[in-house]
Structures are given as C-alpha cells and as structure tokens.
C-alpha cells in the first residue's frame, strides 16, 4: 500500500513558524519518498504565486522557496478554490505545477487508502 501524506497549511507570513513547519514536514516527507500533497489555504495561498516564497524569512529554518521546490518536484501542491477566489488568484497566476481545487478533492485525498493528513 502506497503511503500518502496530505499536509494542509493554514498560515502564511501571519504565523511564520506554523507555515514553515507545514512546508518542512511536507518537503521532508517528499524527499524521503512519501507521496505528498500540500494544500495551501488561508494566508499560505499567497505562496502559490511566483516570487512570494522567496520573500518569506524565518531564522533557523530552511528557505521556503527551496522547500516548495522539493514538494513541486516530487509531490503535488494545491491552492484551495475559495481561498484563491478571495485573493483573486487564478489558474494563470500560480507557479507552474500548482493547481487550484476545492473541498471535494481535499476530502478525496484525505480519505484515500493509506493517506494521513496533518493540518498546520
């Protein structure tokens, strides 16, 4: 049975430690061969836009842009449909490889056999 980790990031620059932790856990899992799906919701939605992850800084943590690159290379990154709409983020605005999807897709991923979900 394949293992899948679904990580939901609910914080962005407004709560940098929680944000960084979500990206760090997702990138670490992806780098170790676990199938990863990172969901960007709330303020973390902004990191789906080009250049935004490069602007994020938190002492003693890995650069968010590098973590995002690891996840995009071997996993999946999704922005919540409603969160994107509230921020006027469209499909043409996001980094290549990032998708916009809604709650039904999140539920499907988290309920899949072998899936575990974490929310930060």
List keywords for this structure.
about 120 residues, alpha/beta, Hypothetical Protein Ychn, Chain: A, 5-stranded parallel sheet, 5 helices, about 20% strand
Number of strands: 5
Q: CATH homologous superfamily?
A: DsrEFH-like
Annotated CATH architecture:
3-Layer(aba) Sandwich
The outline comes out as: globular
CATH level-1 class: Alpha Beta
Radius of gyration: 13 Å
Largest sheet entry:
5 strands, parallel
State the helicity in percent bands. 25-40%
Mean pLDDT: 96
- Give, in spatial order, the strands making up the sheet with the most strands: 4-3-2-1-5
What are the segments in which pLDDT stays under 50 over at least 5 consecutive residues? Answer: none
Order of helices and strands: EHEHHEHEHE
Overview of this structure, please?
The chain has about 120 residues and is of the alpha/beta class. The chain has one domain (about 5-120): Hypothetical Protein Ychn, Chain: A, CATH 3.40.1260. The protein has helices at about 15-30, 50-55, 65-75, 80-85, 105-110, and strands at about 5-10, 35-40, 75-80, 100, 115-120. A 5-stranded parallel sheet has the order 4-3-2-1-5, sandwiched between helices. Helix 1 runs parallel beside helix 3. The protein is globular, with a radius of gyration of 13 Å. The mean pLDDT is about 95. Pfam families: DsrE.
How is the topology of this model organized?
Layout: E1 4-9, H1 16-31, E2 35-40, H2 52-55, H3 64-74, E3 76-80, H4 81-86, E4 98-101, H5 103-111, E5 115-119
Parallel strand pairs: 1-2, 1-5, 2-3, 3-4
InterPro entries: DsrEFH-like, Sulphur_relay_DsrE/F-like
Pfam family, one: DsrE
């Amino acid at each position: 049975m394949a293992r899948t980790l679904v990580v939901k990031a609910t914080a962005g620059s407004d709560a940098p430690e929680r944000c960084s932790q979500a990206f760090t856990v997702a990138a670490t899992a992806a780098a170790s061969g676990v199938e990863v799906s990172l969901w960007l919701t709330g303020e973390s939605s902004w990191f789906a836009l080009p250049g935004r992850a490069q602007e994020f800084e938190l002492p003693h943590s890995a650069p968010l842009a590098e973590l995002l690159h690891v996840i995009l290379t071997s996993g999946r990154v999704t922005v919540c449909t409603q969160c994107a709409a509230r921020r006027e983020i469209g499909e043409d605005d996001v980094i290549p490889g990032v998708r916009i999807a809604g709650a039904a897709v999140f539920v499907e991923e988290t309920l899949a056999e072998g899936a575990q979900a974490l929310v930060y």
